[in-house]
Amino acid sequence: MNISISTLGLYPARIENVLDFVTDLNIKYLEVVHEYPYDKLTSDNFSTHDINLSIHAPMSDVNISSHVDKIRNTSVDIMEDSFKVANQWGVDRVVVHPGSIPVMALKYPEKILKYNKESLLKLQKSAEDYGVMMCVENMPMIDRMLYTNIDALFELVENELYSGITMDVGHAHNNGFSPEQMFASDYIHHVHLSDNDGSYDMHDALGTHNIDFNQIFRILKDKKYDDIAVIEVNTKQEVLKSVEYLKNINVL
After folding, report:
1. 210 and 75 in contact (C-beta within 8 Å)?
2. 151-196: per-residue pLDDT in tens?
3. Where would you tag: which of 8, 12, 80, 164 has the fewest CB atoms within 10 A of its CB?
4. Strand-pair partners of 230
5. CA separation for the pair 42, 55 (Å, rounded)
6. Is 204 left (phi over 0), alpha (psi -120 to 50) or beta?
7. From the CB of residue 16, how many other CB atoms can be counted at a distance below 10 Å?
8. How confident is the model at residue 68, as a pLDDT?
9. Which pLDDT belongs to residue 146?
10. Which of 183, 87, 192 has its CA nearest to residue 135?
11. pTM for the complete prediction?
């Protein structure tokens, strides 16, 4: 298993400072959220550091299940841009959020689910064309979010999509799933790590609430998980707390 750090907790630091910070922690992996100020980077920006990358496709102002055709299609195009960049950077994992139900479409949930699946199928084909793995992420318990239920996401991926899955343990815990339930699928090829008390999606430092990370890492070890697990917390201090916690439980 390869521990990574997301730029989410280091935003909006300059990328050279991010790379120095991660390297100083002796972490060899970085997940770049492909939004400003990291949306115009090239592979040259990483050439001075021995770092392995993954990409998180944009989250802001996109909805691949929108019932407004232009918004939905543009959102898909934006995700595809991240696949293209991943190909250029030599990255093989791209995290994608499923869509959400627009306020004016609450009476048409089946139509929105159809749009969402069509968009994901198109994105899966595009990811294959660019030679990267799309990893669809489970969502937190927030109104109108799709695929907060990890079982529904497992079913979609295993029976129709055939992509990877990003298991966000904080989101899954927020929705009441146990560690055993979180990792029931063999399609999980990416993991996001943060802590919360179950009441909402906090993205706090590991070990500060009640997620059983010891059990999570035991399961990952038993499954011989050898992909990336990303520390995805809110601040630099929470990154440091999380790294120290992982050292204390002998993961780092």
Report:
1. no
2. 999 999 999 999 999 999 999 999 999 999 999 999 999 999 999 9
3. 12
4. 4, 192
5. 13
6. beta
7. 12
8. 96
9. 97
10. 192
11. 0.97
Tokens at 220, concatenated: 């990952």
Distance CA(215)–CA(180), nearest Å, equals 8
- Which residue's entry shows tokens 């935003």? 11
For the chain, the average pLDDT equals 97
